[in-house]
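Researcher: I'd like a candidate sequence for this fold, 160 residues long. If you have to choose between options at a position, lean toward the conservative one.
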C-alpha cells in the first residue's frame, strides 16, 4: 500500500482537499530524500564518513588550493556553522583534514584536505557513483525532469 496516496485520500476525506496535493508532494519528497540518504550513507559507511563529511571533503577537493575558510564551507554547503564544526572536528580526528588559524583573522579557521582525505574522497566517490548516482532508481529523462522541478522549487525558496 502506498501510504502517501492513502494520506492524500484521508486529507481529502477530512475536508483538506485544497492541501492534499501539496501534502502528497512534500511528504513524497521527504520520503524520497530519506531513501536516497540511506543509500548514500550505506555506500559511504565502509569509508567511515557520513554524507555531511563527504560533502566537506568534496568541496575541499574541488577548491583550487584544497583549502577553504570554515565560514565559506558553511555558506557553500548551506549548513549552520555548528554542523561544519562538527564535520571538520571528526574529519580532523580521522586525519582527513587539517585546521589552521586564518592568517588574516585569528578568530577564523582554514580547513585543508590532507593526502589521506583526498584518497578517501576519491574512493568514496567511486563507491557512491557506482552504488547510487549511476542508478538513482529513475530513468535519465525522469532524473532530468526531477532536477528541473527541484531547481524551480529551490529558486522559489531563494536557495540560489
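Model: Candidate sequence:
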Amino acid at each position: 500500500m502506498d501510504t502517501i496516496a492513502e494520506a492524500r485520500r484521508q486529507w481529502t476525506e477530512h475536508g483538506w482537499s485544497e492541501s492534499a496535493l501539496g501534502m502528497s508532494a512534500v511528504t513524497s519528497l521527504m520520503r524520497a530524500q530519506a531513501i536516497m540518504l540511506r543509500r548514500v550513507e550505506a555506500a559511504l559507511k565502509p569509508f567511515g564518513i557520513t554524507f555531511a563529511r563527504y560533502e566537506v571533503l568534496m568541496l575541499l577537493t574541488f577548491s583550487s588550493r584544497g583549502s577553504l575558510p570554515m565560514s565559506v564551507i558553511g555558506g557553500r554547503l548551506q549548513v549552520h556553522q555548528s554542523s561544519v564544526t562538527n564535520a571538520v572536528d571528526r574529519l580532523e580526528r580521522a586525519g582527513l583534514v587539517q585546521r589552521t588559524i586564518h592568517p588574516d583573522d585569528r578568530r577564523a579557521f582554514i580547513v585543508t584536505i590532507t593526502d589521506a582525505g583526498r584518497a578517501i574522497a576519491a574512493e568514496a566517490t567511486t563507491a557512491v557513483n557506482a552504488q547510487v548516482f549511476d542508478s538513482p532508481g529513475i530513468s535519465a529523462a525522469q532524473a532530468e525532469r526531477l532536477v528541473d522541478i527541484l531547481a524551480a522549487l529551490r529558486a522559489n525558496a531563494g536557495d540560489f
